[in-house]
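[Meeting: bench + compute handoff]

Bench side (C.D.) handed over the final construct sequence. Compute side (W.E.) agreed to return the predicted structure before the next meeting so the bench team could plan truncations. Sequence as handed over:
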Amino acid sequence: MLAEMASAAEPGERLGTKDELRSACGVSVGTFNEALRIAQARGLVTVRSGPGGGLFASRQSAMVRLGNSMLALDDDAASVEEAVRLRNVLDPLLVEDALAHVSAHGIVELRGALEQMKLAADEGDDTAFVRANWVLHARIAEISPSAMLRSIYLNLLEIIESHLLAVQPYADEPLREYIHDRYELHAALVDAIADRDPRALALIQEHNTTGPSTAAD
């Protein structure tokens, strides 16, 4: 109900205090707080303290931070943020499987996807680079013998990709340098998988701690 109220209001319109809104919704404190958390995650409401404060309707966020860039999304940044978080949890499992099960054909597939990343980077096509990046991760996932793990991971990638409109620079940070560094990291990851080098696990950890994060970070 809180999300519906916020969606129906004009951006910046005051909805009321937490107590007023909880009473209007007729729910417990715990239920209201969970509804508020979800509405804030979706960018539908903001909370202001002090005199005249309370909950205010806001325009839904459509940006997610990705290193030194911003992903411009259609209308569901919260779902993308959650999908990225879950994808990062599964990445080490898939790299472990790749180290144990990669074939000669699989290595060719990985290097082909990596080449598409390089071409996009050389052409300065940031959006194509990000999409090629996701293709590479899909190829790594496809090596896993676990059908369940593959399916979950590929579905998460599909959720992320389906909402992407474009990639834009973040503030004044150099996007070109970031793209180059990300390519080099992925090239090292593919080399490690091809060599069945356990260093691949450290590289995927570096990948996930220096890459995607939410716009609020």
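W.E. noted at the follow-up: The mean pLDDT is 83. C.D. will use this when planning the next construct.
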